[in-house]
Every structure is written in C-alpha cells, then in structure tokens.
Amino acid sequence: MAQSSRTPISETARATQSIQANSATRALNVLGDRWTLMILYLAFQRVRRFEEFQGRIGIARSLLIDRLRRLQTAGILVRVRYQERPAREDYHLSEMGRDLYSLALMIVRWEKRWFFDPANPAHRLRHSCGNDFTPEFRCGHCGDLVSPRDVYVEDGPGAGFDSARPPRAQRRSIVPADALNQGNPMLDRAFQVLGDRWTAHVIAAAFMGHRRFNVIQSALGVAPNILSDRLTRLLDMGVLSRGLYQQRPDRWEYRLTEIGRDLYPLIAELNRWGDRWLAGDNGPPLITFHRPCGHRLEARVTCDQCGETVDAFNVTPPE
C-alpha cells in the first residue's frame, strides 16, 4: 500500500511515547487478544450464555469474566436479562459488534485461501445463493477486487498522534492447542496474526511501507525485544520475509510475502471499523483511495459464486 507524504514522527512525539494515529491500530487495541477473538467468533454463531462460551472455548471462569467485561465496556457486547429469579443474562452483539462481521469474513477468506481445511465449519460457509463460497473484497464504486497495490492513503481530518498504550501484564495471548474444545475448530493461523496485539501492529506497519527495524519501532512505540520476537514469529509463519540491505554491521529489511500481502482486506476492515467507531469527533486519521477508479475506498464484501453482497443475514454455516 502506497504511503502518503506525512510528517515524520518527531523526537518530541517519541519522547512522549506517542504513535501516529491509525484506526487499524486503535481497533487492534480493542480486539487484539486471542480470547476476545474466540468470544466474538462464537457470538457470530449465536452463542449467548456464559456457560456455553466457557464450555466451547475451555477458558477459565475468571478470564472469561474479564474478557466479557472488556467487550461490554468497549460497547461490542450488551447484556440482556432473560430470567429474573434468579437473575440470568445473555450476551448479545451490539450494532458496533455486529459491524465486525465483515472483518470475520476477511479472516475466513485468508484462512480458506491459504490453509483450507474441509473439516473446519468456518471454511464451509453458505451464501443465500445456495453455494459454499469464499468472501471477496471489492471496491464499492467500481466493483473491482482490491489489493494493497491498488490503494493509497492521505491524511484525514483526524491525523495526528495517539498516546502509546502501556504494555499489558501478559503481553502474549497464547492459547495452548489442548485448551480448545474438540469439535470446535478455530481459525488458528488468523488468530495467531490478530490474537496478539503487537503481531498485528507489525503487519499493519508493513502495509504502511515500514520495513526497517528502527522505523517500525518508532512507528509503533514498541520495545526492541518485543518487536524482535514478533518479527521472528511472522518470518516463521511465512507472512514476512527479510533481506539484507547493509553489511558490517548487518541490517535487514522486512517485507510482506504473498501470504502477508493477502492479509490486506483484513487490515482494511480493521481500519474501516476503527474509522466508524473509534475516530471520535476529529474523524478518521487516514483516508484510503482506490487508485483504478479514483474514489475513496468504501469496500464491499461479496460472494465469489454469485457476486452479491454478503452480510450476517444471508450467510449460514453448513449443517
């Protein structure tokens, strides 16, 4: 994705632990946790009750309480009373939460394209046209498929800096494979990408054209040891590759692979959701344009079988 000519990150901004404002980054600060993504995955399958979340995921009660509370505080989930004596409540997606469905479809798209598993129900979604389908990411104006090479960004009305978030007590959100309930296959690789905040931040920075260690570190406000660890993990996953650009001492650049570049629709949906729900009164920090048609990018998720728009109301999982 081409980068706009924006003001470089200043020494003052770095000194105050500020990072360049970005809606995808803001969204990841809310969603970039593997337990959180699993809860949302199940919420889109109409799981509503605490006991069912706990049983399906295999999560400790205290941890589930914490993540549900965070999602309520963010406005993504709301509690609905279904019984008075004793009091019992369900957890329902709010409008803000339901608006994450296109992001969920982009996760499915990436997983299905690169790591298809016919045993995974998420890889066998059915559209109302009657066919199993793979979601497509298209420009809402011209209808073309959108890739990172087709877009460029310019400063929006909310351009500026955000305060860097403090590190969490537990920086990684690692879920052992044996913690997942049998018969409930998760979107494992995509959750590895999105389920750790810093991993996803590094990918988003790569789409902004940041390739060198010190540039990525400055853009994200991340500690060197954390950045080194996440870069290694992304290299191992095949999302990034590295090449030597200087010797004595050796210096490396990190570039998105084909698999990594194909994550663009996912990052774009994070940005769209963050623009809508987290930009505040100032508006979006960045505006994305579709180069072939020249319009501001307003993407549409479509069925690859019939070409019609896909949403939560016209998709069903397989029986």
Description of the molecule:
39% of the residues lie in helices and 18% in strands. The chain is globular. The protein is α+β, with helices and mostly antiparallel strands and 319 residues long. The strands form six sheets. It has a two-stranded antiparallel ribbon. Residues 2-16 and 169-185 have low confidence and may be disordered. Helix 2 runs antiparallel to helix 9, helix 2 (23-31) crosses helix 13 (264-278) and helix 7 (101-115) runs antiparallel to helix 13.
Keywords summarizing the entry:
single chain, 319 residues, alpha+beta, two-stranded antiparallel sheet, 12 strands, 39% helix, globular
| General shape | globular
Distance between the termini: 39 Å
- The whole-angstrom Rg is 20 Å
Uncertain runs are 2-16, 169-185
User: Largest beta sheet, briefly?
Assistant: 2 strands, antiparallel
Strand % is 15-25%
Share in helix: 25-40%
- Please count the beta strands (DSSP E, at least 2 residues each): 12
Neighbour order of strands in the largest sheet: 1-7
Mean pLDDT: 87
Structural class: alpha+beta
- Series of H and E elements: HEHHHHEEHHEEEEHHHHEEHHEEE
* Number of helical segments with 4 or more residues: 13
